Amino acid sequence: MDGVPRVPDPRVPDPGEPEQWGSERSAPLRFSVLGPVRAWRGAESLPTGSPQQRALLAALLLREGRTATASELIDALWGDEPPSQALAAVRTYASRLRKVLGSGVLVSESGGYAIRSLEDGALDLALAQELAADAEKARNAGDLCHARALINKVLSLWDGEVLASVPGPYADTQRTRLDEWRLQLVESRLDMDLEQGCHAEAISELTALTAAHPLRERLRELLMLALYRSGRQAEALAVYADTRRLLADELGVDPRPGLTELQQRILQADPGLAEPSAPVAEPAAAPVKPAQLPATVPDFTGRASFVAELSEVLSATSMAGGRVMAVSALAGIGGVGKTTLAVHVAHQARGSFPDGQLYVDLQGAGARAAEPETVLGSFLRALGTADSAIPDSLEERAALYRSTLDGLQVLVLLDNARDAAQVRPLLPGTEGCAALVTSRVRMVDLEGAQLVDLDVMSPEEALQLFTKIVGKERVASERKAALDVVAACGFLPLAIRIAASRLASRRTWTVSVLAAKLADERRRLDELQAGDLAVKATFELGYGQLEPAQARAFRLLGLADGPDISLAAAAAVLDLPPDDTEDLLESLVDTSLLESAAPGRYRYHDLVRLYARACAERDEQPPGERDAAMSRLLDFYLATAARVYAMERPGDRLVDHLEPTEHAGLRFTEGAAALDWLYTEAAPLLACVRQSTGTDRLRRAVDLLWASKDLTESGANSYQYETTARAMCDATRAAGDVRAEGRARTVLTDVLLVSGRIEQAEEQARSAMELAGSAQDATAISWVANNRGLICLHQGRYADGKVFFDQAIEGLRAAGNRPFEATSLCNLSRAHLGMGNVTKAVEIARRGVAAHAEFGRTVRLANSHYAVGVALTRAGRHAEALSHFSDALCILSDHRQRLWEGTTHFRIAEVHLAARRPAQAAQHTEQALALGCIGGDRMRGSVLTLLGRALSELGQVDRARACWREALNLYEENGAPEADEVRALLTPAAAA
């Protein structure tokens, strides 16, 4: 059954390990009735004879050891019209079965027969009943995860039709009974799915089930609830209308009260429907428990009242009956110790949040604060959500985040927030969770938050912190000088820590020496209290004690934008071997001038980064070394991204026409590692592109964006990628670099095509073609020609599209780019298809598949299978089309191309609808809606239109109309011509 994970099949024993069926040595008997009636002794399949003999065996097995009289068996096999020799036939069947099964199994008693002496679990039905009973106990105990897993095991025992090909009235009755039981189990499992917040995932299966069992009201009720919780209220109400009409037409009755009550609650937007009634977190394959808190400082000092206040709030939150989701927001100037306090309190409260702790630096004080959607993506991954399941929009990610946390006790530490708007989507919002927020600003507009204003330390606390780091003996003899030091630091914890650490590492210094250094005008109290200048003066203390190599690393690494930097990228910036680089970075971590974000990744506090850049401008010699460092970083990203591109698209010649690099970049042995690198480095990589607007780096930056195009095609980083592409278009235009601008606009065209903004894509493509022609950039010309052909396909201009594809193919053939030539060939087949040349379209697309197959299971091979499937669909060759679409799906899933997966599901749905299989069509369109598609809102409109057609054929007219109305809104917003088609679908129904 779709959507039910398989468990190891108990009918096929593993000789290598014991199981409930018994071991090979004892060779126990096993039987199955939840499918064909079969018997085994150990691994050996036993003959069960003719259909009537299997019917006798089934009747005895289903009696569960009780005796069946001869007359009962005759009734079971033949009913009211037994043959004249029925009794003799029963005896013959029993004798044959006894020989097969062995002595002591099929016994005769009181003129009847029974099957005895079977081991526990020997019959699949008995095992299913036992597991179902355990599932019911687990559910009653509130353990929905375990209950759902047990029901999935039960459902996995079914192997096709129950009692398949077994004749007789008894078998018919039992088949109906067991089919009904299975459907009840499915309903129970789906009910638990909704209780666990998996409503979006359940819609596809429920759509198929309601089509197969249109009069089953419980399934309709679950579908209404799933649609409503997925934000599809109109469809949910339409399901009720369809059900009411169907029941009236077929049975002459009204819906049962539960269904009617649900409709009223939906109409009233009952808050109780918005969330599961008894949510329990769905377990991943391995338990996921994030523990992201940075290390607490061992010498944490003071802040006792704040620690007590915050700890009390967190403790109360985790207790039963505690308040709904506590939020504490700490505010204060940079360096005042907000993060240190929050991390310390969070570590103390870890026991109250057994499901984990999340942490993020929101970079609110920097020029580019972290985007909430990016943070939500990282949080969802930390909570065990697969990349392919993470939606695109901020709203959808926030909803999935809250659903994932529902029922858990998780502490979220949001560090260095810019404002309340940045924080709101990141709050859990459910009982048992809590959030600690730090920011420079007081978040008076953060609803429900407990505001904590954190000021500088008191003199006593500041001296205690200084003493813990430096040592009691050294401070005791120079208490006055120590007070001068902490006063000069403005009682800022970060400044005190840096000053004290410097003194601790210089055993020949006295406290008075340090105090004298801080007496300099630049380090006076009024300066230390003057916002960022205070922090800068404090950082100067630590920076001045660095060895030359450390200082150089500190300065140069601060030049790079992005939330963090990997060890490999840092090695490129510094032009050093990775081992030497790691030693330097770890030494900087020891001085608190750099943070270790994760193994092999480093980051600056935003203010430290600003200070490092000021040092680079002041101290780096020669001055050109700053540009050289950023050039090396760009080279590293470009060379590595080019290798990722080449692994994903073997044989593609684009990488031969990118700007040359001096840095070798990373090498990968497998495609999965290459994709991991690309998606992990997305934010730093795109930041590097945006930074590289100087004329000497501009072309490489544009080529880096081009080589990393999977970031937008997969839907993983579409927004950030698009904003970067637009920035590069502006930068190249300002620089007057025709070649670079042509490529930047080519990249932007790709982005717009993926998102379905066809008119904007056409505008950019025209500019890109003109610029590429002026620059005589053959690579870009061929690429843009292919894009313009795709635009023509969207606009229905198939003859024009053929011209562009022919131009692209000619250029790609001349360049020896065989894989991309094959891709354009597949696109050309779509143009022929549009012109009615179906046979030629199939033939051309097949040539594309053959060409791509030479290069392995690549994304482009999947795209060519997709093209063949589309052409075969038009030719009416549905089975062949489905085979090609299935091949495409397998490859796309391996390469994490979620949007293309969704698009392929849409095409599969088209095939099923054309083949008069509306239930399967509806199920695949729901999967397309869940995954998203290439083409953005416009394509979503097409998916909804198709879903409406499938539902209409299933008799669910009101839900179909709800889909069409939503599709019409999307088409009208995008000015799409398909709007007329949907209006035509709605008009007859409206008139009726």
TrEMBL record:
Which stretches make up the OmpR/PhoB-type domain? 21-117
| Keywords carried by this UniProt record | DNA-binding, Repeat, TPR repeat, Transcription, Transcription regulation, Two-component regulatory system
Task: Please report the residue spans annotated as repeat (TPR).
Answer: 862-895, 941-974
Pfam hit, one: NB-ARC
Q: Which stretches are labeled DNA-binding? A: 21-117
Entry keyword Repeat: yes
Q: What species is given as this protein's source?
A: Streptomyces sporangiiformans
InterPro entries with a match to the protein in the record = AfsR-DnrI-RedD_regulator, Apaf_helical, BTAD, NB-ARC, OmpR/PhoB-type_DNA-bd, P-loop_NTPase, Sig_transdc_resp-reg_C-effctor, TPR-like_helical_dom_sf
* Protein's recorded name: Tetratricopeptide repeat protein
Where in this protein does the record put region Disordered? Answer: 1-25
Q: Does this UniProt record's set of keywords contain tRNA processing?
A: no
High-level lineage: Bacteria, Bacillati, Actinomycetota, Actinomycetes, Kitasatosporales
Any one Gene Ontology BP term: regulation of DNA-templated transcription
* GO molecular-function terms, A-Z: ADP binding; DNA binding
Q: What does the similarity note say?
A: Belongs to the AfsR/DnrI/RedD regulatory family.
